[in-house]
Amino acid sequence: MNSTNVAMPPAASAAPTVTVVSGGVGAARFLRGLLAAVEPEQVTAVVNTGDDTQLHGLSISPDLDTITYTLADATDPERGWGLRNETWTAMAALERFETVRPAGSAAATRWFNLGDQDLATHFYRTARLAEGAHLTEVTAEIAAAWGLGLCLLPMSDDRRTTIVTTATEGDVSFQDYFVRLRHSVPVTAVRFEGSAELTTAARHALTSADIVVIAPSNPLVSIGPIRSLDGTDAILEARRDSVVAVSPIVGGAALKGPADRMLTELGHEASVAGVARLYAPIASALVVDPADADLADAVEAEGMRCIITPSIMSTPEISRALAEVTLASVSAR
Ligand code: FO1
To answer: Which atom belonging to ligand 1 lies closest to the Cα atom of 174?
Structure first.
């Protein structure tokens, strides 16, 4: 009988539950990496609905749809939003009405591109809401229809709208700023209008998860709307040691969208130090790309631990590694 010890397998640590505070494209890519590292049943995304808009009588939730389509591997890779192999015949057919539309009418508007397949999602969501369903249950139906395993939650079932004040046109909706104006005008203020109620499900997801991750989304107009809801910051502050943020800024620039310019225009610093200043009250660690290793001290000076790991999610392997390092950087509750 030899005496070699039989190596016992490590006690399977009860897999941590993770809630990801999410915006659109950056959050979708992070979630894709996370779902390669942990089981979908462990993951909940609390998603920004400040971008939501009503067009053609349809209820559109871009960040929820961007995450849904990305995790279903159905997104157009170039655009980062909407579906691949999309056609635009319905939108093209609207052009005929532009000649007869009365001034000031929003009918047949075509600056916000709705693909033919994408319309099906808006038809379904709009019809279900019109029957009295809440956005939370409709979102779960749409996620199930696309075969997603994670729990996808809107931050609120009520209207909570991001209003961007621009130097040229005054107050506009987020989509007007981001798409119609191609976010090419300076911003002087951002505010959120409407109900400030987190859903019960979202509140539970933020309080009960073992770990909370602030996804690499725009801190002001993607994460900001979720923080603007009553209770969000208090919940995260109370569990700050198990909250970690991933910087959406790398080398002073946003990987996608206007986050860097908006930070500067609104008086913040477009750097990982500026992101740390925004997140220090609610998260104990900030994950930054090696390009910002020289700013690690500045991040730590804000009271956050600085975790350095490749954060540009250009391959599934990098996305997965980023998720694993992010989860390992805080102690689960
Ligand atoms: N982004 C654009 O830049 N141009 C568009 O025409 C556009 C249409 C669109 C339609 C449905 C949808 O779910 C998203 C769409 N987006 C478009 C992206 C949208 O503006 C998102 O809010 C941004 O990706 C920021 O999260």
So the answer is: 22
